[in-house]
Amino acid sequence: MVAATVFGTQAYSQDLIARQAPIDRKLKSVDSLALQKQIRVEQSLYPAFDIYPSWNNETVAYKDAIIPESYTFDLTGFCMPTEHTKITDIFGYRPRRRRGHYGLDIKVYVGDTIRAAFDGKVRVVKNQGRRGYGKYLVIRHDNGLETVYGHLSKQLVKEDQLVRAGEAIALGGNTGRSTGSHLHFETRFLGIPLNPALMFDFEKQDIVADTYTFHKDKGNSQKGSSSKGLFYKVKRGDTLSKIARKQGTTVSQLCKLNHLTRRTVLRPGQVLRCS
Known about the structure:
ten-stranded antiparallel sheet, two-stranded antiparallel ribbon, Glucose Permease (Domain IIA), Membrane-bound Lytic Murein Transglycosylase D, Chain A, about 280 residues
């Protein structure tokens, strides 16, 4: 009977919760002890519920998210989504196609097992046909991140299903806007795409660091902000001055934090501390 009451009021309380955030303000605004209890139940059912404005099974992005100035993600307890290590396309703007690429493309083959990166709950399982992601899914994790897995041949999980890090969730494929079999892998926070290469080192099959700190880009917060991390993975062609501009710091600070000189030659794949 208690379970029936909880789920019978879920639709009403869900609407209430979606309009009010974060969780502390939600609880202060609710007089009914029953509704306070229901909000606590909802919070336990949905990962990172105190951060996100809603839970929906329809879209990757969010319209009414309140973006914090900074947020630190715990990356321990991870699992690499694939054992393959070859990156075929990186995160960032594509001048040739005049659009952004919001994740990493990792070479996989049709039928390869794709695994959940962290513990969490499946939020979206969709098929865009020949467009965009093709067959894809989104998982919200307990640490506040959401991960997106695109161009799949088959999804092995359902919406609202709880999953553990390393659990098989899909099979690699070549669906959607794709010219060859690969996994399109995104890491997002409140719908904002973050560069997975700053968190995951696919070559070493490991995380870059135990934590990653997101900082809101105040100049672009309404369109979707870029992230400035605690760490930065050096890419081919990077210089200390270029990295300093990207990360909102100075060359002197980079040198001090990493025991470098201004003449140090950077190696692709090298990880620098930025703050």
